[in-house]
Model the fold of this input.
Amino acid sequence: MYNPFAIALLALEAQKVVELRLVKLAWGGPEGCTEAQQMMSEKVSALIEASGTLMMGGSCDTVVARYREHVAANTKRLTAA
Done:
């Protein structure tokens, strides 16, 4: 089973990262290009990590918790500058 509250929090937290990334991409330049490349790399890595967790018998809650960690790290990184 899964925790709908954790999923709702993930959705809200991810929205902030989407906003911050869109601003960075809109400004363009080398930083925007780097952000686009990093975003795609992170998405592929997250997919592989989540798939591996589920294949090894991990729960959906474990995957959601790990995604929330990634989102928190991105929020911190994107708001640091």
